[in-house]
Amino acid sequence: MTKDSRENRIPPGQQLVAPGKWPVIGERLPAETNTPWSLKIIGEVDKSITLSLEELRSLPQTKRTMDIHCVTRWSMLDTTFSGVLLKDLLSETGVKPSARFVSFLARSKRKHAASLALETAINLKTLIATEVNGEPIGITHGGPIRNIVESRYFYKSVKWLEKIELLNEDRLGFWEAESGYHNQADPWAEQRYMAPTIDRRTALKLIETKDFSDQDLRSIDASQRNLAGLNANGASLRDANFSGTTLAGADFTNANLSNAHFHNANLCNAVFVDADLEGADFSGADLRGANFTGTSLIGASFFSDKLGVAVGAIFDKTTQLPPAAIEPLFPEQLHYVNKAMG
Fold first, then answer.
1. 317 partner at 20 to 30 Å CA-CA among 85, 143, 166, 276?
2. How far apart (Å, rounded) are the C-alpha atoms in residues 281 and 227?
3. Please, which contacts does 239-245 make with residues 24 or more away whose CB atoms are closer than 8 Å?
4. CA proximity to 229, closest of 247, 207, 205
5. Who contacts 157 (Cβ-Cβ below 8 Å, separation ≥6)?
6. According to the model, what pLDDT value does residue 2 have?
């Protein structure tokens, strides 16, 4: 496959993972593993059923090769899943005319779930998968059962699936309800987040105080401002826009900055200890003296060449970017960081 053909399959804002790597996102283990696994299909069906793992595997299997796109900006091409099509499973239960949505529920400590319009789920050939690339799906990647939805961000593909419920009204899943992720999740339209959590007037008042600590400020626009010394300890700042902002000495300890925008920001001596920086953009940012100890940087960018213009972050010997933090970076990002840091 040529480079051009690969790039045509990568949605906006995404990067390819290194060959053979599948980043582990979110919880690593289900709520418990001692109970034998089964899959229940309930709700607006003619007949509720419960299938053991062995019974699910004994049904006619479908193999599908597809591309995966995670909302934290990584993509993995040509991944082959095997399992039972949702459409085929529902032929075993029958579907009531009142069924309009389908919810996938996980055996998860945080009770993860995701929903889709039933027609959409069928049309996208949603797969109830037990294998990936010819092997059982590993538990850290959602095995033994995971629903796989092509052409949607991967949070619609629920780990540790144990229940499918047909609904007459939609019910937001965990990431949509708790984190503001977009309910449609189309990667080609970059449907990552829904509306911001606060209005512009409230945002401006908070910006004046320079205190975001413990606030939920998803998608806040704080670009092109002087926020030196900002206190954002423990804040939820997914998709926040800090492009071009002065943030020297800012404290982002334990903050959630997934998909945040720091393009061309001044982050000298900023503290990101134990922060979630998955998918964050640091291209062109001044990171001298910044501390990234304990951060999660899967999908993060420190270098960009959009429109043929190369823009890279600035490092020096005072930047604290431990090897463990940068190890999950994608190859071109890791190469740039290692070269820039000498």
1. 276
2. 18
3. 239/180, 239/192, 239/193
4. 247
5. 68, 114, 142, 146, 147, 148, 149
6. 54
Distance CA 156, CA 68 (A): 11
Contact residues for 32 (Cβ-Cβ < 8 A; gap 6+): 107
d(CA 176, CA 185) in angstroms, rounded, equals: 10
Residues 132 and 273 in one domain: no
Which residue matches tokens 């001298």? 288
Amino acid at 198: I
At 295-323, the pLDDT tens digits run 999 999 999 987 667 899 999 999 999 99
Question: Which domain does 215 fall in, by range?
Answer: 196-342
Mean pLDDT of 108-135: 96
Residues 6+ apart with CB under 8 A from 176: 114, 115, 182, 183, 194
| Of residues 243, 211, 209, 320, the one with CA closest to residue 275 | 320
Residue with tokens 């134990």: 274
Q: Whole-model pTM?
A: 0.86
Q: Residue 294: CB partners within 8 Å, gap ≥ 6? A: 273, 274, 275, 325
SS3 assignment, position 100: coil
Residue 212 belongs to a domain? yes
What is the arithmetic mean of pLDDT over 124-141? 97
Question: Do 253 and 144 share a structural domain?
Answer: no
- One-letter amino acid at 22 equals W
- Is the N-terminal amide bond of 144 cis, ω within 30° of 0? yes
